[in-house]
Every structure is written in C-alpha cells, then in structure tokens.
Design brief:
Elements lengths: L1 H17 L18 E3 L8 E3 L9 E7 L7 E5 L1 H4 L3 E5 L5 E5 L11 E4 L4 E6 L1 E8 L3 H12 L6 E2 L4 E4 L2 H9 L3 E8 L16 H4 L6 E3 L4
Parallel strand pairs: 3-6, 4-8, 5-13
Antiparallel strand pairs: 1-2, 2-13, 3-7, 5-6, 7-8, 9-11, 9-12, 10-11
Length: 221
C-alpha cells in the first residue's frame, strides 16, 4: 500500500506542476446574484446555492466537529461529493432539514461526529455509491494503475490489494488497457486524503469572499 500511495502522490505532484500556472478549468460553483441562486458544476445530483445563511428557526445549524464520546442523537447520510462541502443544506435521515457551516476545507468521513447549535450530536454516515474496484496481477501492476489514476487527479480509495474509484467508463477503459480487472461494487467511498478528483474542494475558500458564506443545497431532499 505504501508503494501505491507513493505512486499516486508522484503522479499528482507531476500533473500539478504542469498545470500550476493554468487557470482553473471548471469553477465548482458560480456566484449567486443577490437574493438568487446558481447551479453548481458538480456531477450527479445538482445542488444549488443560496447566498444567505438559513435562519436557525427553520434549519438545524451544524457549525463544529465533535470529538467526544457522547452517543449520536441524529444521523446525516452523504456520498463523498457532499462530504467535501463545508457549506451544505440537506436533510438528516429523520427528514429534518440541516445546514452545515463547517471549517473551510473540511472533508467528512463516515463515523465522524458533528455538534449542532442546539447541542445535539450528529453522526456522519458514508452513503453507498456505485464504484469500480480495480485489481491487478501483482503489487507493481497495481502501483502502475494507481500512478495513472493519480496523474488524472482521480479520487482513489486504497485497500488491501485493490483500488476503488467512482464509476467512470473512460477510466475503466484505461485501466482495462493496463491489464487491470475492473469490477462494479456498491460501497461507501473513502478515498485518500486530498483526493485528486476533489482537489479543488479548497475552492470553498473563495466562497466566503466579502459577501458572506454561501451554501450548497441538495435537490430531491
């Protein structure tokens, strides 16, 4: 696994160095006009953004992480894309509406706990996703696959003898061409820290600006 992680890191740094002076190709979101909303560029369920913080009377506000031993009072189930959002409006598994205003750059992991403004403890559940599991004939071949994925800034989960990525037919074709076996799986996705596919998640830093925080809002509940 150390060899695989080093391959991914090397590929990512090499690719980043080639593009360090290039402008961002895709902004994660666009500015919302005063009182209006904008559509995010995220794939999958399209969130929208609003420019104002929801009122505490209508939405449960969650603004801090929790490291204590208290049991959870509520649960929040999200896929990996939404666990990279420090500003998010969604619903708990109970159906209650919740607004996340977490420290910028926060990436939530399954099992992590948060503290709501009303004192409740909210446990994060990593939702099952459609993934592809990559297996190779040996460690060197797996490291090679990891290198090529890292070179494309792809979010990769590293396991014992396998890699997992989000379903992508182009990447599947590349991996099969490298001699890897690619199998469909449905599981929680916990990629390496700093996952390349969401390397621009720190673009959240630009959300604050001088006009106040903005919040992603998941559609469809």
């Amino acid at each position: 696994m150390e060899l695989i992680s080093r391959a991914m890191s090397l590929a990512g740094k090499r690719h980043a160095g080639q593009r360090s002076n290039a402008p961002a190709e895709h902004a994660e979101c666009t500015d919302a006009p005063p009182g209006g909303a904008a559509i995010s560029a995220d794939s999958g369920t399209s969130p929208t953004q609003v420019s104002q913080r929801p009122s505490a009377a209508s939405v449960l506000l969650v603004e801090s992480l929790y490291d204590g031993d208290a049991p959870a009072d509520a649960r929040l189930e999200l896929d990996f894309v939404y666990r990279t959002k420090s500003r998010l409006r969604t619903r708990l598994t109970s159906g209650e509406e919740v607004g996340l205003f977490l420290p910028r750059g926060t990436v939530l992991r399954g099992g992590q706990k948060l503290r709501a403004r009303d004192g409740r403890i909210v446990e994060v559940i990593a939702a099952a996703e459609d993934l592809r599991e990559v297996r190779c004939s040996g460690p060197s071949e797996l490291a090679r696959a990891a290198y090529h994925l890292g070179n494309r800034h792809v979010a990769v989960e590293v396991g014992d003898g396998w890699l997992r990525i989000r379903a992508d037919h182009v990447l599947e074709g590349m991996l099969i061409g490298l001699g890897a076996a690619v199998l469909p799986v449905r599981a929680a996705f916990e990629p390496e820290a700093g996952a390349y596919g969401h390397g621009h998640q720190h673009g959240d830093d630009a959300e604050g600006g001088g006009s106040g925080a903005r919040i992603h809002m998941m559609s469809g509940g």
